[in-house]
Design brief:
This protein is an alpha/beta fold and 256 residues long. The protein is 40% helix and 18% strand. The chain folds into 2 domains: 115 residues, Periplasmic binding protein-like II (D-Maltodextrin-Binding Protein, domain 2, 3-Layer(aba) Sandwich), CATH 3.40.190.10; 98 residues, 3-Layer(aba) Sandwich (D-Maltodextrin-Binding Protein, domain 2), CATH 3.40.190.10.
Length: 256
Amino acid sequence: MRTRPGPLALLVGALFAACLAACGANSDGPLRVDAAASLREVTSELARLHAERTGKPLPRVNLAGSGELARQVRAARKTDVFLSAGAQELDGLEADGLVVPGTRRALCSNSLVVVALEPRPDFDLAQLVRADHVAVAHTELVPAGRYAAAWLRRIGLLNALEGKLSRAANVRAALAAVQSGACEYGIVYASDLSAAPELRVVHRVPSSELPAIEYAGVVLVDAPDVEEARAFLEFCTSDEGRAIFERHGLLPAHVD
């Protein structure tokens, strides 16, 4: 003879079912936006405005180098929107089938500058070679570092600087190395200077000496609420969204 479950068993079962339902209802939680570290101020403003206008929870913004973020996307499969500072990372995710088809959007561009703690009115590029340490983002894992290495290679200084480059986890960490005095010079994005007003630009890298710097965004296939993710990315690429990027020192996207 089978016994009927008692009130306590029924309560435990109900709580377990409710827990399962809550765990599956990820669309009610905040949007997760993985963004390149150089977009810190931009994504903070975009996330705040998105929450205010949609009534949705404030998106959680996860900042790091774009290469590290692409690794996290593959490992955790929890990202809704990825805003990358380089095309290479997005190309790889698309090839792996992790991007919702047709969602890739150009966001903005940028430029590179050489910065120092003190003004250097007589600066010339040979001073980089004479420096003990030059801060860059990681030259293989971070788009800003790849752009910096491509520029140094083009002007014939990469080999001479190889032992002097201090490779940081992301471009903001490279910026901090100059702020702290650990490195005499840094090669960073021009837009980063808003976060370090005490630094001085000693050289602006001509766009003709650089590969195209392309930021772009995508919606990931693991997004619990694809429609909200699409809406956030569309806001990023709206006229208002592009104006926010430009107000924070970024350049208009290269759109074919």
